[in-house]
Amino acid sequence: MVKIDPKARDLVSCRTTVNKHRSIGIFYGENPLQTPFSLLLLEMSLVILLSRLVRFLLKPLRQPRVVSDVIGGIIVGPTVLGRSRTFARKMFSDEGSFLVHNLGVLGFIYFLFISGVKMDLSMLKGSGRKHVMIAVCGAITPLVSVTLVALLFRTRLDHELEKGSSIWGVAASMSITAFPVLYPILREQNLLSSEIGRMALSVSIITDALGITFVIAFEAAKQGESRSKAALWHLVSLFGFIGFTTTVVRRAMTWVIRRTPEGKPVAQVYIIFILLGVMVMAFLSDFFGAAIANGPLWLGLAIPDGPPLGATIVDKCETIMMELFMPFAYASPKLLSTLLTAHFLEMPFRDSLTLSLIMSFRGQVEYLLYLHWVDLKMVRLPGFTLMVLLSTVLTAVATPLVSTLYNPTRPYMVNKRRTIQHTAPNAELHLVACIHDQENVAWLINLLEVSNPTLSSPVVVYALRLVELLGRASPIFIDHEKHEKQYGENTSYATVHSALKLYQETRGDYVRIHPFTAVSPRRSMYQDICELALVNKASLIILPFHAEGIDINGNISHTVNSCILAHAPCSVAILVDKGPQRNQCVTRSFRASSRHFAVLFLGGADAREALAYADRMAGNPDVSLTVVRFLTENYERDDGLEKKLDDGLVTWFWVKNEANEQVIYKEVVVRNGEETVSAIQAMNNDAYDLWIMGRKHGINPVLLEGLSNWSENQELGVIGDYIASMDFSSTASVLVLQQQVLRGQRMPASHSIC
């Protein structure tokens, strides 16, 4: 018999509890949905499938993942499918709801832990006055506004919500933009490396620092509502907890990194203990009266971001956390203050509006706060539902607006010519050279040697080391001349830049090298490259090409090369090292006492750029040059303007080099692509060390007729891809050039790629 206290005010219900852990099957007359574990498996499958389906349907609308997860949760919840009493009784019984709720909380805990691991607190030190002012004004204005409105209507609020601590907690949550919410949305929109994206991340970290202070004050005020001593003990225990995390735990993580050999992954046992520590920290933060997710967030902040430890943790658990647990977590003044502050600081209105929309994003952190308020009985379920819907709608509306208002590639669309062809003969030649590993240093130095740097026309190189962003959220752009002390001891940076520095010392005033490093996501690497070229008025971006796309060292992929070709503010050159013998090939091609280069001139802007670069190389006494111009029979299907421009440049080149015995010029007439390939194959006698050609723009289609199906790598063009392939039995390197495409002439790259 169950005895019920007659003084109890809460509703008491009696029900039968199923003690079976698994079903023996429907063929034995049992319903699998009556066993908790089988029910949990079905609920997990349903929630995840619905979230993925909604994400697929909303992808054309550029909606972030958090919106699709919330909508999926709404569909499964009482608003849609849950309206059916049979569905609700079968799928979300008391046992099922209990399990789903706890899985959602577990997802939130690990989500904030991973977000803490990715956060780079060093950005606080590097924040400028503009970032601080936008963050402070964007936080204080809504805080004061919401507080004043709440005080005016205080008599109409619920009993718990009218308390001063509750008003402060709600106002504080409305004033901050959480970094864990902002980062995944910016990553999905490919804005991490953009100017606005970097600013938004920096501002959000500052507002998070303010937000942690606000939350501590809110929790202390809540603890002090019953006894003032409780607030004091809460603060003492909390600061002790934070101190333990930032000292003992941080030192332990540093010890783990020291124990890990360079280039090797962190031992599995350390990762397991850290992931178990997440749950311990969650328990301790809940034990001390703080929000349950605070401990995991602080633990994440105590772990150094990036390789080896931070990157390993993110790699091990981010996918299962985001794909499996997070979907269960979902079954204004801020906009105006940020806009006005940014505009006051002389940011363009369009950029100010974009930043204010980004800082208005709401997501997982806000939903967790709303759940916390429900636990504290500050808000009821209708109010919780309304806040979740409003936050979701705000993010759903703001995200596509950001994509419409802000195009990170817009600054790269310039009208001024920045090409080798249009660079004055006695002017400095500015190049951006991309480096992925130590192997790339050799080809860069050799290419600089044959580029004929002189006192009257020196070469200025902006050497950009590209590193894929792993285990941290914020992209980093390092100018090693300004931050030599900070990054000089990092062996991954020092080896490359020491070699470049040594080469510069041997070349004196002929070559000047400025080393940089960009740590960014693969999808947005092209933005760092294009920005560096734009700021320094480069005439050429040089990229290495690897047939395998991206290797274990983080080399740039074909898709990123395509983005650079589509958005570069200057000309682009791609250097191909062929086959597994590419190191020996480069050495043989460039370090011989005399080098013989072949230029395949098929016409068009890209071919003219290739000839202009080859003309510069012809000034080197160790370089012999053979230029072969391909023409169609009776000039069939020639573009009149392109033909005129080609004739002018070829005539200028031949007049200039007519007396140079090391330069040979030939013309070949062909009728289709097969004859073009045959003529090129006839030249393949191992006499050439480097093949130079234009990519594709302006080529007479007759010259390529029947060859379109041969091309596998579009960034090299049809002829470049053929010569770079193994079918063309040559060990010589290949240099493919694309001349700058001016504003209004370029074809945008696919949104899914760039």
Chain-wise SSE layout:
Elements lengths: L35 H23 L6 H12 L8 H7 L2 H25 L3 H4 L3 H24 L11 H12 L3 H10 L6 H29 L4 H32 L8 H20 L6 H9 L6 H17 L7 H12 L4 H10 L5 H12 L5 H25 L23 E7 L3 H12 L8 E10 L7 E4 L4 H4 L3 H17 L3 E10 L4 H11 L4 E6 L12 H10 L3 E6 L5 H10 L3 E7 L3 H14 L4 E10 L7 H18 L5 E8 L2 H11 L6 E5 L22 H8 L8 E6 L16
Parallel strand pairs: 1-2, 1-5, 2-4, 5-6, 7-8, 7-10, 8-9, 10-11
Antiparallel strand pairs: 3-4, 6-11
Helix pairs in contact: 1-2, 1-4, 4-12, 4-13, 6-7, 6-9, 6-14, 7-9, 8-9, 9-10, 9-15, 10-12, 11-12, 14-15, 15-17, 16-17, 18-23, 21-22, 24-25
Walk me through what this model shows.
This protein has helices at 36-58, 65-76, 85-91, 94-118, 122-125, 129-152, 164-175, 179-188, 195-223, 228-259, 268-287, 294-302, 309-325, 333-344, 349-358, 364-375, 381-405, 439-450, 484-487, 491-507, 525-535, 558-567, 582-591, 605-618, 640-657, 673-683, 717-724, and strands at residues 429-435, 459-468, 476-479, 511-520, 540-545, 571-576, 595-601, 623-632, 663-670, 690-694, 733-738. By secondary structure, the protein is α/β, with parallel strands linked by helices. It has three domains: 56-102 and 109-405, Na+/H+ antiporter like fold, CATH 1.20.1530; 409-483 and 490-547 and 558-577, 3-Layer(aba) Sandwich (Rossmann fold); 593-743, HUPs (Rossmann fold, 3-Layer(aba) Sandwich). Helix 10 packs parallel to helix 12 (294-302). The radius of gyration is 31 Å and the shape is elongated. Residues 548-555 and 579-592 have low confidence and may be disordered. The chain crosses the membrane at residues 98-119, 131-153, 165-186, 198-218, 230-249, 269-292, 383-406.
